[in-house]
Amino acid sequence: MVTDPETHEPGSQFETVRSVRSDRLLTALTPFHRLVVVSHVNPDPDSLASMLGLKTLIESCQQGKPVTLTVDGMIARAENRAMVEMIPIPLVPVETASVDAETAVIMVDSQPCTGRRFSEEMVPQVVIDHHETGGDLNGVIFQDIRGHLGATSTMVTGYLIEQKVLVSPELATALLYGIESETTGYPREASTLDDGALVWLFPRANKDLLARIRNPKLPQSHFATFQNSLINAFLYRDLIVSWCGEVSQPDIIAEIADFFIRFDQVNWALAIGLFDGGIKLSLRAAGLGGRAGEVLRQV
Fold first, then answer.
1. pLDDT digit string, tens, across residues 19-58
2. How far apart are CA 28 and CA 291, in angstroms?
3. Torsion sign over Cα 37, 40, 45, 46
4. pTM here?
5. Per CATH, is 9-214 categorized as 3.90.1640.10?
6. What distance in Å separates the CA atoms of residue 40 and residue 112, rounded to the nearest whole number?
């Protein structure tokens, strides 16, 4: 039997589990005249899609309020640049965003004082995140933090469903790719709500646009860095360490770690490179118990 995407189970999950959250979010934002949305440094597809989804939600439910989406750092990875350009997603540098007493700052896919932003000058009134890494939530008037979910885009999709906001094919594509990018690796870290959001978004997404975002053109420097990392990769028991050298953009170091973790003789992959005068590390673990992020924080 084919189920109507408007009424199938994933949608009802959102409505029963999170019917209060989007109302509470909008209530918290009511006193403010302007909104600025921020995320972590070098935002990924999940944070980009979440920001765009919140902009659509607020502009639909609280019409007339300007919503500014910001970028901290750079849009480095080719897929991320394609997403920003093709959807498109309007972004301004975070340092140019004006914040006053009538402006609410919404932080997505991150939390204050967790070392994931260049500056902590902007104190958010709202925090929406799927990471377990605890931040300083003093002064936050609305928080939705669910570490059991695979993507912040899942949470924002739920808000849109709850408020019955019309989701355009471009927004559906962004949210779908945001969830997909967070949950399709191995080991897969996703919940039934993530899967429900994917099922709800897929028929609404632009498949040609999605394919173009997934498969962007790559510069010569991309292949040169991969060549260098292969030449300078060393195996230590079940750990592979790769020296990437000087890189043109920092996200490629994470791509190389993702590449090496598929090697059938390793459980850990560490990629190291130089960018903008500093050392960048990316660590991947093959199992759910690996806790690669916690290991790196102790280095």
1. 479 999 999 999 999 999 999 999 999 999 999 999 999 9
2. 34
3. negative
4. 0.86
5. yes
6. 9
For position 9, what pLDDT does the model report? 42
Q: Which residues of the chain have pLDDT under 50?
A: 1-10, 16-19
Number of neighbouring beta carbons within 10 Å of residue 174? 35
Sheet (strand 126-129) strand order = 92-93, 67-71, 34-38, 103-108, 126-129, 142-145
- Residue 81 parent element (H or E): helix 78-86
The domain ranges of the chain are 9-214, 221-297
Residue in this structure with the two tokens 């896919």, named with its chain if needed? 109
Contact 36, 122 (CB under 8 A): yes
β-sheet with 233-236: strand ranges across: 233-236, 239-246, 268-275, 278-285
| pLDDT for the residue 5 | 38
